[in-house]
Structures are given as C-alpha cells and as structure tokens.
Amino acid sequence: MEGDGLSEDTMAMLKAMGLGPYQDQDTPEDPQVAFVRQAIQAAHEDEHDEDDKIRPNHEPLLPAVEDPEDDGRPLVTVELECPYMRQLVLNALARRSSSWRVRECAQGEESAWWQRAADVHWGDYEGVDWQRVRANQLSASCFCVRKALIRKAHLAHNLGMWKMKHPDSPAARAAPETCVLDLLSAGSIQQAVVSSEAVTSLERGERWILKPSVSNGAVGIGVADSVQTAVDIMAAEDGGGGEWVLQRYIERPLLVNRRKFHIRMWALAVGRLTVHVYPDGVALFAGAEYEVGEKDLTRMEAHVTNACAWNRLTEDSRNMEEKKQEEETACV
Q1: pTM for this predicted structure
Q2: Cα–Cα distance for residue pair 10/28, rounded to 1 Å
Q3: Is it the case that residue 203 has pLDDT exceeding 50?
Q4: Is the pLDDT of residue 316 over 60?
Q5: What residues have CB less than 8 Å from 242, skipping those under 6 apart?
Q6: 239's torsion region: left (phi>0), alpha (psi -120 to 50) or beta?
Q7: What is the pLDDT of residues 242-283, one digit of tens each?
Q8: What are the CA-CA distances from residue 76 to residues 92, 106, 120 (Å)?
Q9: Cβ atoms within 10 Å, residue 302
Q10: Per-residue DSSP letters for 158-173?
Q11: Helix 8-16 and helix 31-45: axis angle, to 10°?
Q12: Quick one: pLDDT at residue 328?
C-alpha cells in the first residue's frame, strides 16, 4: 500500500461506496452503495481469461466456505496491517451496517479462510487472494495490475507513449520532460546520467528532480542542478541501484499562501477497464514556503508536497534541534 493514511485504492472504494464521515448512519438504500454493487456485478460478468495470462497460477482454487452468520448481506473482510488505516475502514463500514456485514481478520490463515466466504476483501495488496479475484469469486480494494501506475519509470514510459499518440491531450501538456535512468543497463550512476537526454540541461545548471522508481513517501527524492549533484543523490540511496526517473523541475509552480501543493483525487477502477472518479479531492501542501529560484536545493520541506515526507522531515528537524540543545546544555 502506498502513501500516507488510507491508500488510494482503499480511499477510492471508501469514497465510491458513500462511506465517508459526512454520511448519516444506517441509510438502508444508499444509491452509492447500489452503484458499487452494480459495478462489482458487472466486473464479475466480464471475461477474465486475459487476467490469467497476466498472472498464471498453477494451484487449484480452494472451494468457498459457508459463513455461519450469513444473513443475506454481502460480507466484507478487513485485514490491514496499519492500525490507523484499519480503524478508519472499520468505522466507515460501520456507518453502513445495514448494507454490509464486516469481519475483521488477522493476517495469514484467518484472513485466507474468511476470504473464501467473503464478497469483498479490504486489505493490503500482498494479502489479497488474487486467485479468487481472477475467478470472479471475490472483489478486492486493490487493483491487481498496478505497476504501470505506481512505479514511476513505468508511469513515465506510459505517459511518453500516450504523448506520442495524443500530443495535444491534457496529459501530454501537463507532464514535464522526463527521462528514465536504468542503472543496470548503463553500468554506473555516472554513465546513466551522462547518457541521458537531460545531461546538456544539467551542465547548464538547470534544475531536475530525481525520484527512485520503486519508492513511496518521497523517499530518495532530490533536486539537482549539475551532473555531479544528480550522481550524489542517486548514490546516497542504497547505492542508487535499479531505475530512476529524472524529471525537469517546475521552478514557477502555482502556489497557495506561498507553498507548493498537489491535488489528490480518488478513482474506482472496475474490470478492464472502467474508471469512476470521485468529484472531491484533497490538497496536500509542502511543509515550508517556496521561493521562485529557491537556492537551497536540499530544503526538501519546501520542494516536496508528500505528507509522509513532511512528517519525516519535521521529525528530523525536531531531533536535530533536541540534539543541538543537548550539546549546548553539555557545554554549559
């Protein structure tokens, strides 16, 4: 699961089901719940042989089990490692107790057993019984084929392909110039940067932002204005192995109260592929004010809007301040 608080997959279904805190309790015929029921039914009726090609599985499908408490309502099993996320989901589902039966499961065998009786499983990606999902016997709160979106190098590649086919589309106009650095193919960090399309720009002192392809919470992100700075940022992150995304830095972004921000939207992806976008989003702000032409490229609290990074940087600053005070006290 990615990101801070609820994952995007979880929030997508939470919002689409109308289970937010703004809802009244126990409304029997909620139109948004009906919408999700219809979406799940439509997904179950869809052909799924292409999914089997994506993730072949040679193990036999275990038979469904009977729920001794079955009263006709759909059963939702909840198995989330993060206690904060788990409680939010349980609270949200409790507001529609007339529409859903909910069972909280421990990770492992208990979760696997109850998924054989469930209609919907709400859990971490790794714990989902994808074999039952592919067999249309279970719906999940995660999207199975997700690497094309959550891995930055894959997303950059797909956006590049879209841009070639649709050069005038909003997505093509909005996506900054991007390079994917494959360190395994290049042989070294230095060679990967030097051989990229961004090298001339970096040599002129222009700014680019570096992101590890497989990471979340803004881990490893840095801003570079030279080849050497880019190399140093990548080398500092576990030796810089794997793929990285090098993206032209937007130096004059839209600011609110002098802070950078991004808008997070939620979507419910059904079948192959219908996407329903929830109309309300959330704006996440940087932890510090941003100045155009910001000289300190290491002041990530001004450059990054990820909430996990903001919390981490705040904690680091607090620890540094406490350490400084301890050293001053020791000197006295």
Answers
A1: 0.60
A2: 22
A3: yes
A4: no
A5: 183, 184, 212, 213, 214
A6: left
A7: 889 999 999 899 999 999 999 988 888 777 778 899 888 889
A8: 12, 14, 5
A9: 21
A10: HHHHHHHH-TTSHHHH
A11: 120
A12: 56
Residue with tokens 């009786």: 117
Tokens read off for 157? 């590649």
- Quote the pLDDT of residue 121: 94
23: its two tokens: 């809802």
| Dist. CA 151–CA 182, nearest whole Å | 13
* Token pair listed for 262: 């991004």
Short-list 102, 109, 100, CA closest to 62:
109
| Structure tokens, 221 | 């992100």
Largest CA distance in the chain: 75
Asked if 305 and 215 count as a contact pair (C-beta separation under 8 A), the reply is no
At residue 123, the pLDDT reads 92
Tell me, what amino acid is at 103? R
Residue with tokens 């949200």: 92
Tokens of 260: 């950078």
Strands 178-182 and 120-123 turn out to be unpaired
Q: Which residues in 54-119 belong to E strands, given as ranges?
A: 75-79, 101-104
DSSP class of residue 2 equals -
| Owner of token pair 């607090």 | 318
